[in-house]
Predict the 3D structure of the following.
Amino acid sequence: MNRLLGSFFGIGFLPGPSGTWASAVTVAIMFAAWRLDCPWWGIAAAAAVATVVGLLAGRDSERHFGSKDPRAFVMDEVAGMLIAGLAAWTPWSSRVWLTLPAAFLWFRVTDILKPPPVRQLEGLPGSWGIMADDVAAGLLSLVLTLASVAVLDGVLPV
């Protein structure tokens, strides 16, 4: 069960950049949630659940996946992307088609480059280290997305 949940139902086992695949699927789910009028707190709750599931599934990641932060374990990317994507639910974000791709881009950049303090959080023990850096990258991406969309809203006509 930990492998199934940690890999986000097998997405982590896809060939190529597993974190990018998981983030892209999460964005697609968020687009669907937005179209179904899911409230912001539904996305926030999903982020909290993904974080808790990641913490629990990641406890035995070395045993289940073969390393401390394995490529196939992508629940951390799901949690981080959900946090970053919350930008689309702010009252001043009128264009989800612009906001969610911007959140995706910023999340992947911050998750890959790991600017301080994101990288330092990887050093936390066990599943805390697996999850904390992506949650921090999601929070940083949320701020960067909101700033980017504010700039783009001033440049692009509605």
